[in-house]
């Protein structure tokens, strides 16, 4: 049985189709949004793949409170403290635009 995801939980997010984990580190894109780069990695032991579950901006999400299905959340990178963002910019590496949906 799967455990409950709560506010304050630290998770690794796995793309099961491609077997890669959501990864980031303190490197910024030199074009586009100019924000911190986010990629997928295959390493299970990668320390830059941890994300903290938080409530959406300006919303109180008490630590330990279960996340409800469909509830808006923020994902904050544990090592850098930066939030995961989406923008209308294409990747400077692939030319693709990132579209993602996280199902907890």
Automatic annotation (TrEMBL):
Q: Name one Pfam family in it.
A: MIR
Task: Give the originating organism.
Answer: Pan troglodytes (Chimpanzee)
Task: Could you list this entry's UniProt keywords, alphabetically sorted.
Answer: Repeat, Signal
SMART domains according to UniProt: MIR
What sequence ranges are listed for the domain MIR? 2-56, 64-104
Q: Does the keyword Repeat apply?
A: yes
Q: Which Gene3D superfamilies match?
A: 2.80.10.50
| Protein name according to UniProt | SDF2 isoform 7
Q: Report the PROSITE patterns cross-referenced here.
A: MIR
